[in-house]
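Let's sit down with a protein and look at its sequence and fold side by side. Which protein we use is up to you, so please pick one and set it down. Label the sequence line and the structure token line clearly, so we can match residues to local backbone shapes. Go ahead whenever you are ready, and we will take it from there:

***
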Amino acid sequence: WDLRRRCVGVAFQSLKDGDTENIGYVIPAEVVEHFIAGYKRTGGYTGFGHHGFAWQPLDNRALRDALGATQGGVLVKRVEPTAP
């Protein structure tokens, strides 16, 4: 809950694999809202969109210089072989 008493996440079951303890997760409220809206609309899980590649922002000046990206931008790190 935030200071305005709004839900900001939902506690998720912790890992119990024998090697870990006291590890839990919180699902952000936006993810829960997306799930509920999709379920209401379709009656099932609709998932999340995926663009088919992994990227990183070119925040590091040395990386921008090495790539010749003086204006900034992003680096496409991987393209999924099954991407559309």
